[in-house]
Amino acid sequence: MNEQKHIIETFTEMASRYEKLMNSELTRFWGINYFEFVSDVLKIIEINETSVVLDIATGTAFIPRYLIKQEIPPRTVTGLDLTFEMLINGKEQIENHDVENKIRLVCASAHEIPFRQNTFDVAICCLATHHMNVEKLLSQIHASLKHGGKFHVGDVGGSEKWKIGFIRVVIKTFAFVYFLFKENLSRAKAEAEAVANVMSSEEWHQCIVEKGFENVKIREIRSSRFWIPNPVIIEATKRLEER
């Protein structure tokens, strides 16, 4: 709960400048901007006119807006986010792009997704899993997806070395100091706390399979900075039948 408090405070303050800020930070850290990275995640998603899509941690609803403007858009896209101010900004963006009839925005936690089981064909979570308990998130995605449904993740990757105690302390300290200097105290706390949630590709694969998914594909994008972990793009399928 304390971690979520910092996240809400952080993203409430960031809401009006979120896309511009992410664009700047991703370019600095990874050498790929926000729009390029999100597009890289979305281009592999198979969607048709009957697809019901859930975008987790939708923020300013960039992903719903992107999907609805495609040549073959999904039937509906639900954008879920913990921070109400981000959704307010997202709704303004949707109205400005005249695509609101197929998009709905819901304020809720990804740890307690408020929809019936087997509702969605596709679930997406981009640049947010490091602020979440991944096991809880995957359990909620699994329950929300239809059998055979797919989920897609794009986020920062980790390393096995991050599990070593003193290395984790160093990374958390660096994250705290960096974002305190660049942003503010709330952002510094949120990013330092997020270090514990970052997983390596191997950890992702193991956790995904344990939660009832198959056909797991994990792709790393090489970071432009050798000391910055590579971002990962992940896709997997909910099993057609429980084993």
Strand and helix map with partners:
Blueprint: H1 2-14, H2 18-30, H3 34-42, E1 52-56, H4 62-68, E2 76-81, H5 84-97, E3 103-107, E4 120-126, H6 134-144, E5 145-156, H7 165-182, H8 185-194, H9 201-210, E6 213-220, E7 231-238
Parallel strand pairs: 1-2, 1-4, 2-3, 4-5
Antiparallel strand pairs: 5-7, 6-7
Helix pairs in contact: 1-8, 7-8
What do these coordinates show?
- With 243 residues, the protein is an alpha/beta fold.
- It has a single domain (2-238), classed as Vaccinia Virus protein VP39 (Rossmann fold, 3-Layer(aba) Sandwich).
- The protein has nine helices and seven strands; from the N terminus they run H-H-H-E-H-E-H-E-E-H-E-H-H-H-E-E.
- The chain has helices spanning 2-14, 18-30, 34-42, 62-68, 84-97, 134-144, 165-182, 185-194, 201-210; strands spanning 52-56, 76-81, 103-107, 120-126, 145-156, 213-220, 231-238.
- Strands 3-2-1-4-5-7-6 form a seven-stranded mixed β-sheet, with helices on both faces.
- Helix 1 (2-14) crosses helix 8 (185-194) and helix 7 runs antiparallel to helix 8 (185-194).
- The longest helix is centred in the last third of the chain and has 18 residues, at 165-182.
- It starts with a helix and ends in a 5-residue tail after the last strand.
- The mean pLDDT is 90.
